[in-house]
Amino acid sequence: MTRHLVLVGLMAAGKSEIGAALAEHRQMPFLDNDALLEARSGRTGEEIAAADGVTALHAQELEVLRAALACPEAAVVTAAASVVDHPEIDELLASHVVVWLDAPDAALFGRIAAGGHRRPVTAQELAALRSSREATFARLADLRVECTGAPAGVVRTIAGLLPPQAGARPVRR
Question: For 141-157, what is the mean pLDDT?
């Protein structure tokens, strides 16, 4: 089985931007959940949630992750925050290197409020999402990295913690 480098974290943690930069830095393909979801459905996550509901969005995000993890070439893969709520997530990610991108709620909420493809949430909803998912992110992650700085700095931090070989396990810090 191919070992991927999987980025997890709450919405607006910077998974897409940091993932693209990390993939370029490591000279690996980049499989972004948001881009794959839009290519597959023809709609953004926000559009799917508005038209079909959040449950339908989360089901599609999980299917996109499954497809990305089935890729035969090692890649940097971003996982939608919602996938950690699925009962099989431990099994899906067990053989991959998982990096948890974390940031304070105020930073995440500022990014969400700025717009983009994300569905809108209130500060209270974001806090509730953190409360319900934080323990799972911690359990799944081989590394936890603060992502409040510039993406290039976050990529350097991650790269410094990962061994040169993509499939090797990082040293937990």
Answer: 93
- The CA-atom distances, in angstroms, between 125 and each of 50, 56, 68, 120 are 17, 19, 28, 10
Task: Name beta bridge partners: 99.
Answer: 7, 143
d(CA 105, CA 89): 24
Decide: residue 53, CB within 10 A, 0-12 exposed, 13-18 middle, 19+ buried: exposed
The β-bridge partners of 7 are 78, 99
The CA-based dihedral angle spanning residues 84, 85, 90, 94, taken in that order and rounded to the nearest 10 degrees: -20
The answer to whether residues 3 and 97 touch, using CB atoms and an 8 Å cutoff, is yes
- pLDDT tens across 25-53, in order? 999 999 999 999 999 999 998 899 889 99
pTM above 0.85? yes
Is the torsion defined by CA of 162, 167, 171, 173 positive or negative?
A: positive
